[in-house]
């Protein structure tokens, strides 16, 4: 989400194994930071909106691949 946290309806839509995280800034970087804190290494990152150049760079630096449309 582009908001600090998911809305209740968004949290209710999470599938088994999906984790809601909170953070300021773009969702892609929030997800990367949360994964790192959990000891995970993301391989692919997707978003419902085009990924901005700064997020695309952060994804690449994390060793992952942006798999949705880029701005």
Summarize the structure.
The protein is mainly alpha-helical.
Sheet-strand content, in percent, reads 5-15%
Percent helix: 25-40%
Structural class estimated from helices and strands? mainly alpha
Radius of gyration: 12 Å
Termini gap: 17 Å
Report the count of strand segments.
2
Give the rounded overall mean pLDDT: 94
Numbering strands along the chain, what is their spatial order in the largest sheet?
A: 1-2
Main beta sheet strand tally, sense and closure:
2 strands, parallel
How would you describe the shape? globular
Give me the number of helical elements: 3
In N-to-C order, the SSE pattern is HHEHE
Oligomeric category: single chain
- Poorly predicted spans: none
Structure write-up:
The protein contains three helices and two strands, in the order H-H-E-H-E. The longest helix has 11 residues, at 27-37. It has helices at residues 8-12, 27-37, 53-61; strands at 44-45, 65-66. The two termini are 17 Å apart. It has 71 residues and is mainly alpha-helical. A two-stranded parallel sheet has the order 1-2.
Describe how the helices and strands are arranged.
Elements: H1 8-12, H2 27-37, E1 44-45, H3 53-61, E2 65-66
Parallel strand pairs: 1-2
Task: Please name the defining characteristics of this protein.
71 residues; mainly alpha; two-stranded parallel sheet; globular
